[in-house]
Amino acid sequence: MSGTNAASGAAPCRFAHYFVICGIDTETGLEPDELAGENFEQSPLKRTFKSKVLAHYPENVEWNPFDQDAVNMLCMPKGLSFRTQADSREPQFHSFLITREDGSRTYGFVHTFYEEVTSPQICSAMQTLYQMHQAENPSSATPSSSSSSSMDSLASSLDEADSPSSSSCRSAACGGYDASRDTLYVSKALCLITPMPFMHACRRFLSQMHRAVTAASPPPLPLESYVHNILYEVPLPPPGRSLKFHGVYEPIVCQRPGPGELPLADFPLGQTFTLLGVENLVQLFNCTLLEMQILLYSQDYQRLMTVAEGITTLLFPFQWQHVYVPILPASLLHFLDAPVPYLMGLQSKEGTDRSKLELPQEANLCFVDIDNHCIELPEDFPQFPNKPEFIQELSEVLLRYGISPVGGAPPTSSQQALRELEDDGRNGNLGGEQLAVLELLQGNATLERLQALAKRTGVRVEALRGVGGEGEGQGGRTTVEEEELRNAKLNVQLREVFASRFTTMFADYEAFVIQSAPDLESWLTNREQMHNFDKASFLSDQPEPYLPFLSHFIETQMFATFIDNKIMSQWEEKEPLLRVFDGRIDKARLYNVRAPSLRSSNYQRCTVLKESGESEETQAIEQRLMKIDHTAIHPHLLDMKIGQGKYEQGFFPKLQSDVLSVGPTNNNRWSNRTATAQRRKDRHRQQTEHLTLDNDLKEVEGCLVLQNSMAFWEWDKASPPPLKPPKKSASECCLKYMQEARSLGKNLRQPKLSDLSPAVIAQTNWKFVEGLLKECRMKTKRMLVEKMGREAVELGHGEANITGLEENTLIASLCDLLERIWSHGLQVKQGKSALWSHLLHYQAREEKLEQQQAESPVSNGPERRKSESSIGMPSLRASVIQDMRHIQSMGEIKTDVGRARAWIRLSLEKKLLSQHLKQLLSRQALTKKLYKRYAFLRCEEEKEQFLFHLLSLNTVDYFCFTSVFTTIMIPYRAVIIPIKKLSNAMTTSNPWVCVSGELGDSGVRQITKNILEMTFDCQNLGKLTTVQLGHDNSGLLAKWLVDCVMVRNEITGHTYKFPCGRWLGKGVDDGSLERVLIGELALPNADEDFGRGCRTPDMQHSPGQTRRVSITSMGGRGYKPTSAQIQEAIGEAVNSICKHFHKPEKERGSLTILLCGEVGLVGALELFFHNGFKSARLFQKTVFVWDFVEKAVAYMESADQMGDMQETAEPLGLTCVSLCHYVSAINSSPRNIGKDGKFQLLVCLGARDRLLIQWLPLLVECPVIQRMYEESALLRDRTTVNALIAVLQTLHDFPITLEASLVKGIDL
Fold this sequence. Notes:
Blueprint: H1 2-9, E1 18-23, E2 52-57, H2 68-75, E3 82-84, E4 92-99, E5 105-116, H3 120-136, H4 154-162, H5 164-173, E6 184-194, H6 199-214, H7 223-233, E7 242-246, E8 251-255, H8 269-276, H9 278-289, E9 293-298, H10 301-313, E10 323-328, E11 342-347, E12 365-369, E13 374-376, H11 387-400, H12 414-423, H13 432-442, H14 445-457, H15 462-467, H16 479-505, H17 520-525, H18 535-540, H19 547-553, H20 557-568, H21 576-591, H22 616-626, E14 630-631, H23 657-660, H24 669-673, H25 675-689, H26 693-707, H27 730-749, H28 758-788, H29 790-795, H30 804-823, H31 834-855, H32 880-888, H33 896-909, H34 913-921, H35 924-930, H36 940-951, E15 969-978, E16 991-997, E17 1000-1001, E18 1005-1006, E19 1013-1019, E20 1024-1031, E21 1040-1049, E22 1055-1064, E23 1074-1078, E24 1080-1081, H37 1087-1091, H38 1123-1142, H39 1151-1156, H40 1161-1170, H41 1185-1202, H42 1210-1227, H43 1234-1248, H44 1252-1261, H45 1264-1268, H46 1278-1289, H47 1300-1303
Parallel strand pairs: 7-14, 9-11, 9-12, 10-11
Antiparallel strand pairs: 1-2, 1-6, 3-6, 4-5, 5-6, 7-8, 12-13, 15-19, 15-21, 16-17, 16-18, 16-20, 20-23, 21-22, 22-24
Helix pairs in contact: 4-12, 8-9, 8-10, 11-16, 16-22, 19-30, 26-27, 26-28, 27-28, 28-30, 28-36, 32-33, 34-36, 38-40, 40-43, 41-42, 41-43, 42-43, 44-46
Organism: Oncorhynchus kisutch (Coho salmon)
Main location: membrane
GO cellular component, one term: membrane
């Protein structure tokens, strides 16, 4: 195999690795392509038949092994197609790519044309098939087009529809085939396989090869010379250089960007924008960044490739990390069942309605209908930052090049548009008139020889060159070169606008990268356990409008890989994309020194483009075209056997393989250049072995793409799957996981498509199942770690530091994972959400069972009833069906996907997600009916582990349902629990209650006398904060001692306890008829305690949290805190308020609890005022702090009237007036809130209006203090009072706002 070695030596540096010819194998004859979905009702000319790789040169390249199945499938994704002389036979071009296991890509460029069938066996077989078809379908002998070509491009179908001559021929031939009358043609493909996407150059080379075959006279040299030249004598252009090499008729120029420029992208972005329009493209770009499932849909393979490559090119500096199959062959449609993010292209059949396209999962799918210029987006995803301004800037760039930003704007006819794309000479193809002239000239042997001689001697034959589609453009360039330059410039300018957005958004990303490992080996070993990026700090540094998008994006695999590459760059050479991006950030810093804290959400336009729209890169591109850096060796005669491969017009000859399997021996100098690249590839491969879950999946998917056989989805009827491989230790798995995947790929590549063994198929599926389980483990772990906060994890306690935004992102990600798990291995898809569909099946079965049980007279046994004497919350039964009914009753949710997500959020908030899903999956008969045997949900061990991971989420509290569905109506249940030992539980007055939450209040709700329990519906109140409880003081028993009020959200089951422990009634306690109670969330599983909860609440543990009940209403029987404890309590209360305001606005929670709750500011100040207070009088009424305030105010007012205060300083006088005014307003309020309630209100208003520290000195100076306070009281100690003022001073920095329930009825 010396030829192989010679061929492979310089492979990495060669322009092309393989030249391939695909077509019909006359020896095997016509083989129907069952995998492509055979339709026997169609005319035989419309059916698809198996194609074969007829030849490929060289035999193999060590660097890039030849994959025959994959290449054949992608060169002719729909197999062979036949035509007659009556049909259009325009040649077509498309490209494809193959993703290798290490994530690297190989590109293929295919020129497909029609060649006359000369084999009598094939013609007679087609004749027989046609006669059989006519006999079976006599009605089908009507004129019809045979448009199902291997290209199946829009062009072919349109040509047929429009061509008058072809329609007349077809009516004569009646759309059939008659061997005696018709000429039969079959598709054949010429393909170049290259390591880099030089699309324009390959297109022109293949086009010229085809022209050489169809020309009237032979080409200047045998075709072997040109193939040998491009395979072995044309190198890749070095970075930043241009290269000229020679096709059959014209030279071809290609160039490669320099090290500091954006990477190579030869697919025309302008065409992508034309096909979709700017707005649709930005939305598609957004979905790609958020790693959704993306399906492109078009009749034209090249359009699929152009859009796929265009969108992945725009991701710079990030790279798509998942399944990437821009052209999905018909035989691989099962691939759409993959439960992972993907970007795939699907060829649409002519006349197929989108609604008939059955897709396994659509919950997270972005469907792009390229031909109809429309896009279907998933529900509920964040928009790209500054989207309107971004679209505006892109539109301006397009308009400079005469492209409409709207996209899909049809010219005179869609056929004309495609004709212009195909025939305007931009790609070496010829228009109609020029083709006629050229054929005339090529028919003249003398002129042909003259032209060939002129080319060899370097003389330019202008007229002929013009006719050949290579007319002169500006500056001596041909029109084709002009067009390519224009495309290249437009590509760069559009990409610069996209790159500029990322440079702006991630300008400071390096500051948040966590470099924690001492060396590469330890980093690779501990990769999964490490935090590599400080997400919370990064988000806190971003402008608020960017947060919804960024919080989702930094959770993606492409961002994780980008950060991994950044960390690895401290030990290794920088990854090329990262190097370019970091260079741009450094350059931006030089021009614009921006402090990270001054983040602005104002749109920053791309600064790289100058006024003219030109940039340094566009100028470099033009420069390289004007001054060609390298010229490859010209094609030359080879040492060939004479008489073989004789020229025959219209037929591609059989090439001499012996001269094409070996390259020239003097090219080994190229191989030295690739040593660095080879080492880099090895390191990259090593890195991917340690990347997280999605890269594992990518590897597996890479294998599948490589061998292009997903028949493994149908093994239901085959023998059972083999035993799973034994479990390894974590470190072993880490190292061996990728090797397993690779060896799997190699095994799969060998057998033919039909020979896939069930064992290999099952093994591949285990990879998906294990991958989903691993993703579940990582997601739940991440949710727990973020929710608890890093300090909590390290120290075992600490305040939760997760923001609502991050939480929402993680929960949306969990919803997406559950949808993918429920979509895996689905038998029949119903609706867009697989999970909701399963729930509906479950609901139908359960309701049927309920109905049967209701009809049967059998008793279910005695129900457990609570004793009548106890008052409390009746328990809430956990039920999958009940929660479904709640969701179904929500009119705001219109789709199945939305309902499934709402149900997941509700179950998570109720801490029932794992339990509900276990219940759902316990109906095994239903699961078997809905899922194939390989589905995740039918793998018992993995399913158990999955439910266990979800169970761990019960350790933290989520409000992900309450906080998202803010406008829905929710039923609430309120129960009032009196203290029975000390009073009648009943009262003759009419009680009422008003419940308030973060989103609003319920309004006053009257409670039926002596019932003490009520339910009411009102719009979602959010987390509950306060309850106002009161009565109208009517009747004889108008006094009421209430222990607490319990309120429950009947949908989420969240129960709040509002402690009271005070009297309501005139002439008792502080005379209050109404109290504002502050709530706290009760423990979820304490249902029984609610029933037994008719007792005084337990004493709080912390001295700073002593209930003021013990000091006031209970006559001071409770223990009295020391002055040090009181001061500590005040400090803690103020500290909590400061912390509250330092959180992002949306994450702050309730300020009311911090002001009036158990450990709030009001309670702490009451302790301060009660210290040393002479409250209990012998044979007299209890005196309250409010009495002291009123007496002090009365003294101030009388002193003012007598003129004593006129000598005081002006500010002090104003302060005195403000205190008197506030006390008067509180006293004249229509509410009966009692003396303690009034003091609470005064403190809250003083804190809000920043007056507390001015009022304190007035109260201390007032002579009344000596009568009402002991000498040792804290209020009479000037040092302590000054310290208190200093502490309260810190609250002046914050805008305190009070809940409406606190200040209702106060007129200031």
